[in-house]
Amino acid sequence: MRLRTIALTATGAAAASIVGGLASKPNIDTWYAKLDKPGYVPPNAVFPVAWTSLYGNIATTSAKVIDTLRDEGRTAEADAYGRALAANYLLNGAWSWVFFSWHRLPAAAAAAALLTASSVDLTRRAAAVDPKFGAALALYPAWTAFATVMSADIARRNRG
After folding, report:
1. Whole-angstrom Cα distance, residue 156 to residue 151?
2. Where are the domains of the chain?
C-alpha cells in the first residue's frame, strides 16, 4: 500500500467522520435522546467504536484496491473507484446533517438507503479486484443497511 494512497483514503474517512461528528455530537444528549427509538438500537457508546473501525477498514481496504488497480494498469478503474469512494464519504457525512442537525427523519432514512447502495457498490468493486478486498468491506454495507432500518423505524415512530 502506497503512503500517498492511504493518506488520501484516510483523509477522506477523517473528513467524513469530522463532518458527521459536527452534526451529531451537539444533538445526541438533547434531541436524539428524546426520540422514540426501537429496542434494537445499540447504546450510544457503540456508534463511535463501530464507525472508527469501519472508517479505518474502508480507508485501508480502499487504498489496497486502488493500488492494485494501478499496479495492474487499470487506471480508469482506479479513478472510478476513487470517485465512488469520495461520493460514499460525502453521503456518509451528509447523513448526520440530515438526521441529527436538520431533524429530517424520512429524508435521513432515504439518505441511509443511498449510503447503503453506495457501500454495496464499493464492496462489489473491491471484490472484483480481489475477493479478499470484498470480504474485508462486507461489514460496511451490512452496517449501513442496519442503519437504514434504524433510520426508517425511528422516522416511523417519530412522525410529526
Report:
1. 9
2. 3-38+47-157
